[in-house]
Amino acid sequence: MSTEYTLNEVARHCTADDLWIAYKGGVYNVTSYFSSHPGGNAMLRQAGKDASNAIPSVQMHTFAWSAIEKKLAELRIGILKE
């Protein structure tokens, strides 16, 4: 069974040293990926938030979608509680 997190809990993790996002019902600890993210600090704009609309809207993501899905699967820590 997956751990459930509220969006308020996700919001507490909003710094470069502790960076979580929600995406399409999942919760992801992306802290370890932040320093290698090709978009640099752009990821911080979604820190502690639901990035379900933001991630697909980045044009460069369309070229790397399979890699993004693979990385998200590795970083998933739970599900977003409604």
TrEMBL record:
Keywords: Heme, Iron, Metal-binding. Residues 2-81 form the Cytochrome b5 heme-binding domain. Gene3D superfamilies: Cytochrome b5-like heme/steroid binding domain (3.10.120.10). It comes from the Eukaryota. Belongs to the cytochrome b5 family. InterPro entries: Cyt_B5-like_heme/steroid-bd, Cyt_B5-like_heme/steroid_sf, Cytochrome_b5. GO terms for molecular function: heme binding; metal ion binding. SUPFAM superfamilies: Cytochrome b5-like heme/steroid binding domain (SSF55856). GO terms for cellular component: membrane. PROSITE patterns: CYTOCHROME_B5_2. Pfam families: Cyt-b5. It comes from Haemonchus contortus (Barber pole worm). This is Cytochrome b5 domain containing protein. The keyword Heme applies.
